[in-house]
């Protein structure tokens, strides 16, 4: 199944129009950048890649009823995802 992804441009200096990515950047700053010291680009790349893997698979998300994405998927994959949790793209 293919789904389309649309690139959305927002006006400069309007983070309230893109709250999801602003929230992610805040979490990335707090939980990755501030917790590590990077010696070089490869070191930074390694830590950020490791964090994104953690974020996408194991980190608990408030928007997923404080489950990790993997736990959330396992819980709802057979019975369907809650309609009230749908995100409008």
UniProtKB/TrEMBL annotation:
<feature type="domain" description="Integrase catalytic">
    <location>
        <begin position="1"/>
        <end position="77"/>
    </location>
</feature>
<dbReference type="InterPro" id="IPR050900">
    <property type="entry name" value="Transposase_IS3/IS150/IS904"/>
</dbReference>
<protein>
    <submittedName>
        <fullName>Integrase core domain-containing protein</fullName>
    </submittedName>
</protein>
<dbReference type="InterPro" id="IPR001584">
    <property type="entry name" value="Integrase_cat-core"/>
</dbReference>
<dbReference type="InterPro" id="IPR012337">
    <property type="entry name" value="RNaseH-like_sf"/>
</dbReference>
<dbReference type="InterPro" id="IPR036397">
    <property type="entry name" value="RNaseH_sf"/>
</dbReference>
<dbReference type="Pfam" id="PF13683">
    <property type="entry name" value="rve_3"/>
</dbReference>
